[in-house]
Amino acid sequence: MDEDENIWIYLPKHSQGYRKGVNAFLDNAFPKLAVGDEMTCPCRNCKNSKWQRREFIYDHLICSGPYPLYVNWIVEVSQILSPNNGSDDEDMDWENNLHFGDNLDEMLDRTNGPTVDSKRFYEEGKQPLYPGCKKFSRLSFIVRLYSLKCVHGITELGFGDILELIRDAFPEANIPLSFYAAKNVIKELGLDYKKIHACPNHCMLYWGEDEKEDSCKTCGLSRWIVREKKGTSDSNPEKVIHKVLANVMRYFPLKPRLQRLFMCKDFSELMVWHAVGHQRDGKVRHLADAEAWKTMDARYPQFSSENRNIRLGLAADDSPKNSIDVYMQPLVAELTELWNEGIQTYDAFTDQTFILRASILWTISDFPGYAMLSGWSTKGYLGCPICNYETSSMYLKYSKKMCYMNHSKFLDSDHKWRFDKRRFNGQIEMGQPPAILSGTDIEDLLSNFQNQFGKKKKEPGRKKVKKVDSPFKKKSVFFNLPYWSHNLHRHNLDVMHIEKNICDNILGTLLNMAGKTKDYVNARLDLQELGIRKALHPVRSLDGKHLEIRAAVFDMTNKEKDLFCAVLKNVKLPYGSASNISRYVHTEERKISGYKSHNAHFLLHYLLQFAVKKSLKPEVATIFIRLGAFLRGIWSKVIDLNEL
Question: Is the dihedral of CA 75, 81, 84, 90 positive or negative?
Fold first, then answer.
């Protein structure tokens, strides 16, 4: 390629120059990296972790573009054909793609003030893999082999057998004797975890001031499980006492992992893209365009003035429920230190050290996880943390569940749906949106709140005490962070979980799946109890022995259900866009089940609109088509809030 084509990867993806560059990359990469007719695809979606055939990799690089981390490597590989560009294919790090070669000398030189232990570690690591080996050192080979274990899911036993085989075949190889020894080498890189003992009832950690305690301060349970073994011979009948930890948390320290992000030039450059790279035009293209991010930047200008400072999000599920704060203590301690003091970090892109600080901007979870992280119970009459004490709720007598109504109060005061009594609860909505509790409001409300963690003891014969009707079950551990109460938006819901629930309810109701449908006799009785939708009220059968329900506007005949299922069963999708959804469609039983969250995501966004168009009435199908358009809008890469 000539000099002008060195930047082919930045040309428009439909241009001849870009396509020529992709073909040059594939021509050079496949002879070196392919296994059979496949190699790992470096596109933005596959991220060099999925094996694809050449034609698919070509399509992915044209349609999706390369993953930013591999851009430089792709260009270098594509230029090997040129005799004048100075590239030497024998010097390329073909398999790793990230230039993770033997640069230990450079790593040591760039480490600010290396300790004696780190010098010894790197000096030992620089030893050749075997006498005369120039491509691998002992450390780089172990790191490469360990990464293959993680990527391909090799078991610890399998990894140990591979080491034994290498030693038998190459006796001079300077490699660890076992998996445990190799793991200790990786541990020296600062990517290990810490074992912190915990109470089996989740009451406390044996950490900090309580590190040397032998029993829980709250419930009194021992830190240990004592196992007694009998002596091994008749002459020694004494029992051998063996202590086993009752509960252990494995904590992965945050600070060294944040530092590692800046040790790779490519990652380090990407860490400031939000400040120097992305377009700012009033649309949401990045989290930096969100109001929560902007509010924090405005309140803490000293923090926001350093573009390399990190804003974190915390993702969690609903285990171990309310007591998760006990296990969050080490993380919160690290986050507090990262906010107040920071940590000295080397930046490989600018070749300088700086004080790295970090903050947690928000959490992401499902709805039960929201309660676990925030402390606000998401069940009962006050189950909505946004409406808080003004939640509009009622208990459905026949369905035996809570129902949350009056959502039209969030619309503009002159919106037509506020006056639509027929489609909603039979009333004109005149209410106004409730005031959202800020972090400082919550902190004031919980100023004297005493947290009680751990499993409660069940005393025999004691009557069950009625729970206090308070939405707060604890004061969240995040309020120990100096900035948390001022965060604008502290908790987020995972959209994938929401979409899965929506999809389950839609498919279950449309196909009238037993146990899944939301349209059943008790639901119709609740409509009758509320005095709305009289056409849907149940009626007595002719014999007067049971209730019957009339067909709703969304009910389908068996023929329409067959058509609905056939569309999803016979759909043909582009390779890699989604899993085989047809295997979840059971046409004989007229039901769809067993699909995962991503399948539900794809169904709602793209497939449902085609299935309902021919099988439902137009006024019903339009609703689902608009729902899909709305979901695609909030998932788009660029969001215009005015259009949304």
Answer: positive
